[in-house]
Write a structure and sequence with these properties.
four-stranded mixed β-sheet; about 35% helix; single chain; alpha+beta; 13 strands; about 450 residues; globular; 10 helices; binds 2-acetamido-2-deoxy-beta-D-glucopyranose; seven-stranded mixed β-sheet
């Protein structure tokens, strides 16, 4: 009976457009569990789709019907393996926190010394629930203690090492390192929901509902903590180009007579290219009234967004010339002869792996050096954008500073108003930067500071 009432309440809540209670069917549950009781282990396998938002969103194998960033259901007192071995995960190490985005938003993460909200006191004995980071099935530690088989530092759970491999040596190095997994066992009875998030890119959190052991009762059927943002949706022109937030520049009217291609855009790839270039040109037009570091970031963010969009476009169109063992004009290298073949062999000998004998990775997402470079642009520059936005936020200056061009008569009034506002805002912002520049660095900044360009 209570189930029927709950279901009715759910339907009414949906009809009223309010937050509905979750039922098990709404959740992505692991379809790979084995063992029972204290031996029970379940697996979630992750993939990243870089085309569905600025930084990409996660998909969980077997839960494709629940879309990107599904809400997971996780049984308490059961070990879960979060498998990030799929190559698409590179540069998106998962973290676990009690509120969205963890340290990137100053929120508590699951750590040995962090008491779960409302839960038992465990921090003094470093016995709180935490994620154990692993590589090829071995625990990761800053320093490993051979005698105990544990990390030498009892607060360590391998996060620094896990992230370290994602930061150093690039994508090939990460792929060669092997199989990255994280193990989480929710043991605190008070924990009702947690969030998984990307430790490098903000706004990539998704919710995990904790289920009671065996009964699978959802501990908090209604969300207790707000995500705080909506997920992006990519459609229309952007979906066709593989880009993010460029659709309004289709046809590049904002850029007037500016010629992007001397003989016209002519094909879809070039139309996409002209649109992203027009977006960058437009959004790199700033008031010019900022402190130099802020001005750098106002210019560099749209510049980087353009690099990311360009790289995503090429990955999306995926022309023959990007494939291993193919010359730039789409012919297989095995068809080449004489001087042409010699040129390609020279390129291969110089480490630009064009020769088919270097193409063993072709089927496992690794791809050619050009593909690796594109992924490095997408993930590396997006991480730098995250850093720059945090810097602007931490220094209490506005997130954007672009303005309309003065030769656009229809917007002249807006420009004047904008510039007037900027003239007032800039000194105030300047004062605030001065006033706060000796602030202690925040978790946001320190969490991303190890990024190398
Ligand atoms: C998960 O935690 C529970 C409760 O502490 C424990 O009984 C179980 O053995 C753990 N699971 C694994 C596979 O270690
Ligand atoms: C990794 O993810 C990609 C993209 O979703 C998928 O096509 C591919 O099959 C996955 N690879 C493996 C080994 O699971
Ligand atoms: C443990 O947590 C409590 C309450 O959250 C706090 O007062 C105490 O200082 C913490 N102890 C340690 C060792 O972090
Ligand atoms: C990675 O580890 C997981 C969990 O141990 C395992 O299921 C998976 O098959 C491994 N993947 C690869 C590519 O070795
Ligand atoms: C998309 O770009 C516009 C400017 O072209 C900006 O105002 C808006 O905030 C961007 N949207 C997202 C979701 O980033």
């Amino acid at each position: 009976m209570s189930k029927i009432i709950a279901a009715l309440v759910g339907v009414l809540a949906l009809a009223a457009g309010t937050q509905a209670d979750y039922v098990l069917d709404d959740l992505c549950l692991s379809n790979e569990c084995s063992g029972t009781g204290s031996e029970r282990v379940c697996i979630f396998r992750f993939q990243l789709d870089i085309f569905v938002s600025e930084t990409g969103y996660f998909l969980v194998e077997g839960c494709e019907d629940k879309g990107h960033m599904p809400t997971l259901g996780m049984e308490a007192n059961v070990k879960y393996i979060f498998d990030q071995s799929n190559k698409t995960n590179w540069f998106h190490p998962l973290g676990f926190a009690y509120a969205p985005d963890g340290a990137l938003s100053g929120n508590d993460e699951l750590e040995k010394g962090v008491d779960p909200p409302g839960g038992t006191t465990c921090n003094e004995t470093l016995s709180c629930q935490y994620p154990q980071y692993k590589l090829n099935g071995e625990i990761l530690c800053d320093e490993y203690d051979e005698l105990t088989g544990l990390c030498a530092d009892e607060e360590d759970f391998g996060l620094d090492q896990y992230e370290g491999v994602w930061f150093s040596g690039g994508r090939d190095n990460w792929i060669d390192a092997g199989n990255f997994t994280i193990e989480v066992n929710i043991t605190d009875d008070a924990t009702k929901e947690i969030f998984a998030f990307c430790h490098i890119h903000k706004y990539m959190s998704f919710r995990i509902k904790i289920l009671d052991t065996e009964t699978l009762a959802i501990r908090a059927p209604t969300d207790e903590i707000a995500l705080g943002y909506e997920y992006h949706e990519v459609e229309g022109f952007d979906a066709g180009c593989g880009t993010f937030n460029v659709s309004q520049y289709q046809g590049h009217e904002q850029c007037g007579d500016h010629v992007f291609h001397c003989n016209g855009d002519a094909n879809t790839f070039n139309e996409c290219m002209a649109a992203i270039n027009c977006k960058m040109m437009t959004e790199m037009r700033t008031s010019g009234n900022s402190d130099p570091t802020a001005e750098f970031m106002y210019q560099m963010i749209p510049h980087h967004q353009n690099a990311v969009n360009m790289a995503k476009m090429l990955l999306h169109f995926n022309p023959g010339s990007l494939k291993c063992g193919t010359s730039y004009d789409g012919r297989r290298l095995s068809e080449l002869e004489g001087p042409e073949l010699a040129l390609y062999q020279l390129a291969a000998a110089n480490g630009r792996r064009l020769d088919e004998s270097f193409c063993n990775d072709d089927n496992d997402e690794g791809g050619t050096p050009a593909v690796t470079m594109l992924w490095e642009i997408v993930n590396g520059q997006n991480a730098q954008i995250t850093f720059m936005r945090s810097w602007l936020e931490d220094n209490l200056v506005p997130a954007y500073d672009w303005c309309e061009a003065e030769d656009d008569n229809s917007t002249l009034v807006a420009v004047l108003a904008g510039c007037l506002a900027a003239a007032v805002v800039a000194p105030v912002a300047g004062y605030l930067v001065y006033r706060y520049k000796f602030r202690k660095p925040t978790a946001t900044v320190s969490a991303v500071k190890t990024i190398s360009p």
